[in-house]
Amino acid sequence: MSKHIARKRFGQNFLIDYQVIADIVNAVAPKRGDCVVEIGPGLGALTDPLLNRLDHLHVIEIDRDIIARLKPRYSPEKLTIHEGDALNFDFASLLDDSGSRLHVVGNLPYNISTPLLFHLASFANDVYDMHFMLQKEVVERMVAEPGSSDFGRLSVMLQYRFVMDWLRDVPPESFAPAPKVDSAVVRLIPRPPEELLAKDEAKFAALVSAAFAQRRKMLRNNLKGILGGLGFEQLGISPTARAEELSVADYIRVANTLQ
C-alpha cells in the first residue's frame, strides 16, 4: 500500500517520536480488560503499543484511507473501528453493563480540539480518565488561572468538570509533517459528583458563555440580560470586573444565586 499523505482538512500530524509515544502510553497505563477508545489512530503510533497492553481497543477514525490501512493490520477481536467524526460520536455507547468507565486517548486534530473537548465533557460521568496530545496553546487555556489572558470559557467549563495535569511538552519535530506550533500532553480526570456544585449546569454554562462572549467588555454589559434585577453588589462582584477576573467558584456562586 502506498505511503499515506497527511490530510490538512483532517488536521493530520502523525506522532513519530518513540519517547513521547512511550510516555503517553505509560501515563494511560492501560490494564488488559480496560475499555479504551483512541480518537484518530492515524498510522498506529499509539494504537500498536496500546494493543500490546490491552485485550481490545476501540478507535474512531474519519479518514477512509486510514481505515483501509487499519483493517488488515488488526483482527476485529482486537480492534473495533468506528468510522466517523468524533464530534458526533456517542462515547457512552461503548460501555457495557459491568460498570467500568472509559479511558479516552488521542492525538487530537488541532482544528477541532476545542469543540471536541466540550463534546467529551458531556460524557464525563462515563469516563475514568482522558489523555490527549493538544496544541500547547490549548493546554495553556485549559489550565489557566483566573486573571490571566488565557483564562476563558474553555478554562472555566473544563476546570469545573475535570482535574487536569499538564504532563509534558512536545516539540514540532516529534510529528510528521511537523506542525508550526508546540504541543503538549494533558490528563483530565472527571471530578466526583459531590464536587460539581452548580445547581443547574445548563444555566451555569449559559452564564459562562455570556460572560466571555465579549471578553473586553465589563461584566455589567455582558450579563445585563441574565442578572435580571440582581445587582453586582448583591453578588459580591465589582461591576467593572471582566470575565477573566472571576474564578470557577465565582461563576458557580453567581449561577446558583440566579437559580
Give a verbal description of the structure.
This protein is of the alpha/beta class. It folds into 2 domains: 188 residues, Vaccinia Virus protein VP39 (Rossmann fold, 3-Layer(aba) Sandwich), CATH 3.40.50; 58 residues, rRNA adenine dimethylase, C-terminal domain (Helicase, Ruva Protein, domain 3), CATH 1.10.8. Helices cover 31% and strands 20% of the residues. It has 10 helices and 9 strands. A 7-stranded mixed beta sheet has the order 4-3-2-5-6-9-7. Strand 5, helix 4 and strand 6 form a beta-alpha-beta unit. Helix 7 crosses helix 10. The N terminus is likely disordered.
User: Helix- and strand-based class?
Assistant: alpha/beta
Task: Name the strands of the widest sheet in spatial order.
Answer: 4-3-2-5-6-9-7
Which of globular, elongated, flat, extended, rod-shaped describes the shape?
elongated
- CATH-derived topology of the largest domain: Rossmann fold
- The fraction of residues assigned to DSSP E strands is 15-25%
Mean pLDDT: 90
For CATH, the homologous superfamily of the largest domain is named as: Vaccinia Virus protein VP39
How many strand segments?
Answer: 9
Element order: H for helix, E for strand: EHEHEHEEHEHHEEEHHHH
Could you give a quick summary of the protein structure above?
The protein has 259 residues and is an alpha/beta fold. The chain is built from ten helices and nine strands. The longest helix is centred in the N-terminal third of the chain and has 11 residues, at 18-28.
Which SSEs are present, and which pair or pack?
Layout: E1 14-15, H1 18-28, E2 35-39, H2 47-53, E3 57-61, H3 64-70, E4 79-83, E5 102-107, H4 113-121, E6 127-135, H5 136-142, H6 153-161, E7 162-170, E8 175-176, E9 183-190, H7 201-211, H8 219-222, H9 232-235, H10 248-258
Parallel strand pairs: 2-3, 2-5, 3-4, 5-6
Antiparallel strand pairs: 1-8, 6-9, 7-9
Helix pairs in contact: 4-6, 7-10
